[in-house]
Amino acid sequence: METSTELTEKYHRLFRENITGIESVSAPFFNSFRGKAIEKFISTGLPSRKNEAYKYTDLNTYFRQDFESYFVPGQSDFEKASKFRCDVEELDVYTVMLLNGFYPENGNKFIQLPAGVWIGTLNEAATRFRQVVEYHFNRYVSNVNDGLIHLNTALASGGLFIYVPENVQTSKPVQIVNIIDSEKDIFNQRRNLIVVGANSSFTLIVCDHTLSLNKFLTNTVTEIYTGENASFNILRVQNEHDSSFKITNTFIYQDRNSVVTSGNITLHGGLVRNSTTHYLAGQGAECNSYGLYLTDKWQHADNYVNVEHLAPRCTSNQLYKGVLDDMSTGTFNGRIYVAQGAQGTSAYQKNNNILLAADAKMYTRPQLEIYADDVKCSHGATVGQLNEDEMFYLQSRGIDKNEARLMLMSAFAHEVIQNIPVKPLRNRMDELVIQRLRGELTRCTYCTIKCG
Amino acid sequence: MLIIKNLRASIEGKEILRGISLEVREGEIHAIMGPNGSGKSTLASVLAGRSYVRVTEGSVTYCSRNLLEMTPEERAREGIFLGFQYPVEIPGVSMTNFLKTAVNEQRKHKGMEPLSASDFLKLMREKKEMVGIDSKLDNRSVNEGFSGGEKKKNEILQMAMLEPRLAILDETDSGLDIDALKIVAYGVNKLHKPDNAVIVITHYQRLLDYIIPDVVHVLYDGKIVMTSGKELAMELEKKGYEWVRREMEKND
Which of A1, A298, B19, B58 is least surrounded by CB atoms within 10 angstroms? Predict the structure, then answer.
């Protein structure tokens, strides 16, 4: 088995072997970060379990596996991906399909939606929105010393750019359908940048799907900026297969009085690690972070939430819930950091879990670091089984035991789901959760390609 | 309809019911009275099928079947209804979904088609009217944030929806003001028919002013120590449970 030094060398070698190809398809601005990033990666390596933020997730297990790199997709790949249809009825959204993290360049490289939102490739944006990109790119991760971020900055060759200029009100959300599909086992780095200007409002839904059954390891970094008084809502729905290993790193920088709601709904996936950081950097900013994970078999779901109160009078809420079956494991690590001078902070955190089997395990850990004195803060975590009195009440009305369990579990999940911003999606998610808990939902259920 | 013979039951090794025999026939209303700790609620729990009560001896026959072998949901589908002393709050489960599932499980059991959403809502409206309950329930979770009175009225509504053959009302009067008590009693009387039966478990005689029992039993220390007509309730009200205790000691 490779040691962590050998693993670092493995990815350094990957960098050396592919850097020419990566640089040839990337904007020079992004290439200027790569040399420094790989150096940092070499000195930090991949995060180990000694790192508090990764205590219960052994990333080496996944990074040790061999993948065939896949840096640039071909035209035909997009044609297949474009057949994929999201089947949520009455979902009134603008849909953008991404394949293995790439924006299809066969059509328009850049589109502007009627409301004034720009969507396109990050590489194209480096020219078209040069000032915006050069100001924001890498800014919100520059102080983060994490090997995964360094590796992404060094290797990512494609990604998405969304720009909502100032004073733009959008009522129709944008949906990104993120498809991973390949005949090869792929190791995939994506890099996204989202900028929501002052006084604007915007909702983004990201749906992660896998099509082929190959082994995929994805490491995504998304930087998000929300300007003064902006309102931004981001929801990620993950429904992938057991050999998909997905790591998302999201950094959201919030200016004065901005309100951001971020959600992660994990229905399926071999490994899912969602790391979400909110920087409450301007006075009066508010963030709401919620998540739901339903795991079974050997799945592992890890949610790391880091809320940094850096300015006075900011508010944060964290609500994460999980239902774990079989021998699956889950981790919740919720950090609340209140900087000196961040007076008038309100910070809340809740993590509730139901274990359905004796071998299922949940690790939950609040992590509070408070350096201001005028702070309202609370946190609570529970791990338990279904409530017997509630079960009996339902059964005593003639409701079958299994049906009663299901009703209670979906009620448990609904507390999270009710935070979903778009009604048809909220209703659909309630249905999907029930199907998932009945064991009827697989990765293929809603795919129209039917590859068998 | 219900025959209980020499029933003994314990909770966590402690014997609570110490040989109860009782027969309830179609069309009858029985009242079971008794002081706190006499075993009233335990008896209700045994009949509804709570697993923490262990039956150690005796038998319970319901409509010629061995009740003790049936799961709680089977009992409910066969027409047994327990009105809870403390109805459970279930956040996130809507009243409508809960009632609809319960009604349709029962219909399925009887080989009937499930009710459509609109037929169900119509049925619910009718039943609410019938038992005189005007609470808005549609968008609320089961019992969540209900006042004490609303919870008990909700139990009666569920009873009306499920039309049980044997309803067991466990201290349905506790914590009710007189107006709520009247509504609950009105509902019970309205639902009472010649082919069903009711067991009213109560601490006080008050409820029995509105629901007139055919038979009154006094449960004391896990045994039925007196059985008589409705006048027994009046006597109890006058003399108190202390009187029962003295009578018992006299007999010892």
Answer: A1
Question: Which of A219, A237, A321, A325 lies closest to A275 in space, CA to CA?
Answer: A219
CA torsion angle for B207, B208, B212, B218 (degrees, to 10)?
A: 130
Provide the 3-class DSSP secondary structure of residue A82: coil
Q: Does position A450 have pLDDT exceeding 50, yes or no?
A: no
* Backbone angles phi and psi of A350, in degrees to 5: -140, 135
Average pLDDT over residues A83-97: 76
Is A395 within 8 Å of B73 when comparing Cβ atoms?
yes
The single-letter code of the amino acid at B165 is R
Q: What are the CA-CA distances from residue B233 to residues A78, A336, B33, B236 (Å)?
A: 81, 62, 8, 5
pLDDT tens digit sequence for B7-65: 999 999 999 999 999 999 999 999 999 888 899 999 999 999 999 999 999 999 999 99
Average the pLDDT over A123-135 and give the result: 94
Question: What's the residue count for chain A?
Answer: 452
**What pLDDT sits at residue B252?**
66
- ipTM, 2 decimals? 0.95
The CA distance from B47 to the nearest CA of chain A, in Å, is: 11
Ramachandran assignment for B58, one of left (phi > 0), alpha (psi -120 to 50 degrees), beta (any other) = left
Tens of pLDDT, residue by residue over B150-172, are: 899 999 999 999 999 999 999 98
The answer to whether residue A399 neighbours chain B at the CB level (below 8 Å) is yes
A287 Cα to chain B: minimum distance (Å): 24
Whether pTM > 0.90 for this model: the answer is no
- Of A128, A63, A122, nearest to A98 by C-alpha is A122
What is the distance between the alpha carbons of residues B95 and A320, in angstroms, rounded to a whole number? Answer: 25
Mutate to test the interface with A, among B80, B93, B156, B157 (most CBs of A within 10 A): B93
Q: Do A395 and B88 touch (CB under 8 A)?
A: no
What does the DSSP assignment read for chain B?
Answer: -EEEEEEEEEETTEEEEEEEEEEE-TT-EEEEE--TTSSHHHHHHHHHT-TTEEEEEEEEEETTEEGGGS-HHHHHHTTEEEE-SSPPPEEEEEHHHHHHHHHHHHHHHTTPPPPPHHHHHHHHHHHHHHTT-----TTSEETTT--HHHHHHHHHHHHHHH--SEEEEESTTTT--HHHHHHHHHHHHHH--TT-EEEEEESSSGGGGTS--SEEEEEETTEEEEEE-THHHHHHHHHHHHHHHHHHHHH-
With an 8 Å Cβ cutoff, are A400 and B90 in contact? no
B65: domain CATH number is: 3.40.50.300
In chain A, % of residues over pLDDT 90 = 62
- R_g of chain A computed on alpha carbons: 21
Across A78-97, average pLDDT:
74
Rounded to an integer, the average pLDDT of A107-126 is 85
Nearest chain B CA: its distance from A176 CA (Å)? 30
Distance CA A372, CA A313 (A): 11
Residue A173 per-residue DSSP state: P
How many structural domains is chain B composed of? 1
Residue type at position B71: T
Q: Retrieve residue B139's tokens.
A: 């968008």
Residue for token pair 């047994």: B80
Domain span holding position B160: 2-251
Contact B97 A401 (CB under 8 A): no
Residue A204 and residue A174 in contact, taking contact as beta carbons nearer than 8 Å: yes
Is residue A107 predicted with pLDDT exceeding 70?
no
What is the Cα–Cα distance from A274 to A248, expressed in whole angstroms? 5
Q: Which of A392, A401, A408 sits opposite B50 (nearest CB)?
A: A392
Q: Tell me whether A76 touches chain B (CB under 8 Å).
A: no
Q: CA nearest B72 in A: which residue?
A: A396
